[in-house]
Amino acid sequence: MPNSISEHTVFMKKAIHLAKRAAALGEVPIGCVIVHEGKVIGRGFNRRLSSHSALAHAEIIAIRQACRKMGDWRLEGCTLYVTLEPCQMCSGAIVQARVDRVIVGAPNPKAGCAGSIINLLQMKEFNHQVEIVNDVCADECSAMLSDFFRDMRAREREAAAKNAETDAPAGQE
């Protein structure tokens, strides 16, 4: 398993690449890779809109793929890299899959369950705890998300303005 910041950066860059694929589809740009013995065995990017599924988070997709590759539901010896701190659903799946370590790009102050709101990954009450490394490529991950949401809000304002123009009564344009 990679231990140095530079090794973490290499795999986080792969997750960032996947996040950009999500953004290209109009999805929130979140990407995830799972690494075992130095090799990527699971990949995922956010697909909630295109899949019409609340379950289509990057981590869930990557976990499913990694489990198939490992031939087991346990992902012991694996490290998960994700561009945004996992939510409660993904954190629960990470614990259930017995992932050893999670490397987080950007914190998620509104839904993060690896320390921002609650830390489900390290609760002693569960039978498995996950090591966490935060802020790997944090600036790039945060900027990607900020840019996406800024652009989304601008598109929404533009669409609202266009709708207001077409809905205006005659003579009030």
Keywords summarizing the entry:
5 helices; 5-stranded mixed sheet; single chain; 173 residues
If you had to describe this structure to a student in words, what would you say it looks like?
- Helices cover 44% and strands 17% of the residues.
- It is built from five helices and five strands.
- It has helices spanning 5-24, 48-51, 58-70, 88-96, 138-167; strands at 31-36, 39-45, 78-84, 101-106, 131-133.
- Strands 2-1-3-4-5 form a five-stranded mixed β-sheet.
- A hairpin with a 2-residue loop joins strand 1 and strand 2.
- The model has no long low-confidence stretch (mean pLDDT 92).
> What structural class is derived from the secondary structure elements?
alpha/beta
- Proportion of strand residues: 15-25%
User: What value does the Rg take, in angstroms?
Assistant: 18 Å
Continuous helix count: 5
Assembly level: single chain
Kindly state the percentage of residues in helix.
40-55%
Note poorly predicted spans.
none
Distance between the termini: 63 Å
Strand order of the largest sheet: 2-1-3-4-5
Please, what is the average pLDDT? Answer: 92
- How would a textbook summarize the main sheet? 5 strands, mixed
Large-scale geometry = elongated
Order of helix and strand elements from N to C terminus: HEEHHEHEEH
Write down how many β-strands occur, each being a DSSP E stretch of 2 or more residues.
5
